[in-house]
Amino acid sequence: MTTRLSLMLAASSLVLATPALAEEEGLTPEKVAAIQRDEAAAQAKVNTEYGNRKPSEMSNAERGQSIRDQQTEAAKVMEKHGVSAKEYATYTARMKPDDTQRVANEAKRLDDKAKAEKEAEAKKRKGDGEVHIQQGFSDSDPVEMESEEGAEPVVDVDSNLESAPVVETGGDTAGPPTKSISRKASKSGSRRGR
């Protein structure tokens, strides 16, 4: 009789510890919201692959393949978050109303964060509306951006480039050859054998 009682106590402790174990493994309402968001994005991706058509507008073969693709994407999302589909389903089925509210709040926060990141990216691409012109590589070593027509080009030679080879420029051969700055070929930029 005592062994039966100890077995019952052990089994009941395992059953009662299941929700606690799920949270220890990292399944929280916040993680559920992230999983739901990723899963919705994966489903939207599959839907766009099939032209956002309703299942009734697809053939049987297309509908079946669409369902298999959606299941594959859902499995990838679960694997990404390190949760099995069974654990996820069990946890979401046993969530309390306050957990459901936490999921909704986290989903709203994630949406707001994604929207803010998208706006920041658009603003970064657009800039502040002004065109900034840099006159040279730096303030201490400026480069002439525009010149007058017919004027001889002015080239400033850096002291580090004194060993650079002399390159003759085309045009008037009566005068002495002018020095030109040549770039040293970098290892990744050299293209020999072309």
From TrEMBL:
Q: Where is the composition biased (Basic residues)?
A: 181-194
Region annotation (Disordered) ranges: 44-194
- Biased region (Acidic residues) positions are 141-151
**Compositional bias segments (type: Polar residues):** 57-73
Where does the signal peptide begin and end?
Answer: 1-22
Q: Tell whether Signal is among the UniProt keywords.
A: yes
Tagged with keyword ATP-binding: no
Q: Where is the composition biased (Basic and acidic residues)?
A: 95-131
For this UniProt record, give its keywords in alphabetical order, as a comma-separated list: Signal
This chain belongs to the protein called DUF4148 domain-containing protein
Organism of origin is: Corallococcus aberystwythensis
